[in-house]
Design goal:
The chain has 148 residues and is mainly alpha-helical. The chain has one domain (2-147). The protein is built from 5 helices and no strands. It has helices at residues 2-13, 21-46, 53-82, 95-125, 135-147. The radius of gyration is 19 Å and the shape is flat.
Length: 148
């Protein structure tokens, strides 16, 4: 449903050609914006003081995907110039392709661990959860509070 709405906005309303970066990124940000909005409505029903936490979390996911795409683009350019035969973005069963896939999984896990405190720690601070945050999570949460 969110993907359909993103395509509608990108291709019908804004008239971006299908398959272009403008179309893809518009769809990405519309989908995560709507997802954040839907989750924020649940936050509002649950506790009005934490209504922005879901919105921040979901928009950060879209930003992370944009950053990841930039890194992939730079890496592809570097690999093409160096003559390495890694086919990023396609099924590549070579050793290099497997390493790239593992790095991708590590990145996703790291980003989720880095941003999840934004979504969950406000509940703990308000007393809705008794989760004991470990030092790393407390550090990340404090850093996010300084930055955002």
């Amino acid at each position: 449903m969110l993907a359909w709405f993103g395509r509608l906005v990108a291709n019908k309303f804004l008239k971006f050609p299908r398959g272009t970066n403008l179309s893809s990124y518009t769809q990405l940000y519309v989908a995560f914006f709507l997802s954040g909005l839907l989750h924020s409505s649940g936050d509002f029903v649950f506790e009005k003081r934490i209504v922005s936490r879901s919105f921040k979390f979901f928009l950060l996911q879209a930003i992370a995907i944009t950053f990841e795409d930039l890194v992939i683009h730079i890496t592809k350019s570097f690999l093409r110039r160096s003559g390495t035969g890694c086919k990023l973005g396609k099924a590549d069963e070579s050793r290099t392709g497997v390493v790239v896939r593992i790095i991708g999984y590590c990145w996703v896990t790291l980003w989720l661990c880095f941003t999840l405190p934004i979504w969950q720690d406000e509940l703990s601070a308000l007393g809705f959860s008794s989760t004991d945050r470990k030092p790393i999570s407390k550090f990340l949460s404090n850093k996010w509070n300084q930055w955002i």
